[in-house]
Specification:
The protein has about 350 residues and is mainly alpha-helical. The protein has 14 helices and four strands. The chain is elongated, with a radius of gyration of 23 Å.
Length: about 350
């Protein structure tokens, strides 16, 4: 892990690549992408504001003054919100914490511990749950007469009735699904690599079986991703960005039938909706917390701060109605940020 000061930027880039490799499997793809973004921005700051070159941008560049100036630069010149600035600071700290496993570099982690986070105003708001009519319109929007339609009808049903995060759904492999059981289920891996068992409702099982037959054939490979990338193959899962892009297309279609469908529908909205609807139906908050895989009930409360408009009866109705419709390469640009 020792840095060669004669090639500081290249050596730092190699250490950062090792950090990314170390993080894979321990952190979500979204978190890892955030690490890369933070380092690219820090390298851009180093080049633009400190005129750092390949020799100067090494581990020794992580000083309190430089990191503090970086945070201010994000806010003042990049227009980043305080929350985003604080997130980038935390992401840089995560890398330095990894580097600090070697005592020689522990000083750099200590240097930035005193960098203060920006003051933020709590502008967080609970994601609005989908109404009964909006959920029904979205559930029908993809249709089931095409492979893509069946894929997204199945995915929407899973996201909603199983109340899973999108990455949990996209990480499911065919062999993970247990259908021949009194209670069909699947084990998903959530945040912090924490696993939990999620039960699958009968109508969703029906959708899944038809989808698997269409997309994976009669003898599916158990190691293939359930929702695989058509461009990369069975062993590469489809991207979250691609899913959300397609959901927005279906939202536009659904809004023709129901104006209650939000303009910016996203995958996590289904999970929020299910949690809220369960509360409306009288489910205990501790049960909901367990269903969602939260570490604490206080986290669950963030999902439940809105007026509930649907009931569990709506869940059953939507599901049954839907079912009936089933038929590091580094660039040679010379820019520091391109090393990461």
């Amino acid at each position: 892990m020792k840095i060669d000061n004669t090639q500081s930027a290249l050596a730092l880039a190699q250490s950062f690549a090792d950090f990314i490799k170390y993080s894979e499997g321990r952190r979500s793809p979204c978190t890892i992408e955030g690490y890369r973004t933070a380092m690219k921005l820090f390298a851009e700051f180093a080049s633009e504001k400190r005129h750092a070159d390949m020799d100067a941008f090494g581990i020794s560049f992580f000083t309190g003054d430089n990191v503090n100036a970086f945070v201010q630069w994000l806010r003042d010149e990049k227009g980043a919100k305080p929350q985003s600035c604080n997130l980038r600071l935390s992401q840089l700290r995560a890398f330095l914490k990894y580097m600090a496993r070697n005592p020689e570099y522990r000083q750099y982690l200590l240097c930035i511990k005193d960098v203060s986070k920006l003051t933020t105003v709590d502008t967080s708001k609970v994601v609005e749950p989908l109404t009964k009519d909006a959920m029904k319109a979205l559930a029908h929007a993809p249709g089931t007469d095409t492979a893509t339609g069946l894929r997204y009808t199945t995915m929407i049903s899973m996201l909603y009735t199983m109340a899973c995060r999108i990455d949990e759904i996209l990480s499911i492999k065919v062999g993970d699904l247990i259908f021949d059981s009194a209670k069909p289920h699947v084990t998903v891996i959530g945040k912090g690599r924490k696993s939990r068992t999620v039960y699958i409702m009968s109508r969703t099982v029906s959708l899944l079986k038809k989808y698997i037959l269409m997309e994976h054939g009669k003898t599916p490979n158990p190691d293939a991703y359930l929702f695989f990338s058509h461009s990369k193959g069975l062993f590469s899962k489809v991207s979250e960005r691609g899913v959300n892009k397609q959901l927005r297309i279906y939202a536009q279609r659904a809004r023709i039938q129901c104006q209650q469908v939000p303009e910016n529908v996203h995958s996590h909205q289904f999970r929020h909706s299910m949690a809220t609807h369960c509360l409306d139906d009288g489910m205990n908050i501790f049960q909901i917390s367990k269903m969602l895989g939260h570490k604490s009930v206080s986290t669950t409360m963030n999902y439940l701060g809105v007026t509930v408009a649907m009931t569990n009866e709506a869940v059953q109705k939507i599901e049954s109605t839907t079912a009936r419709t089933v038929k590091p390469v580094w660039k040679q640009s010379g820019k520091l940020k391109d090393l990461f």
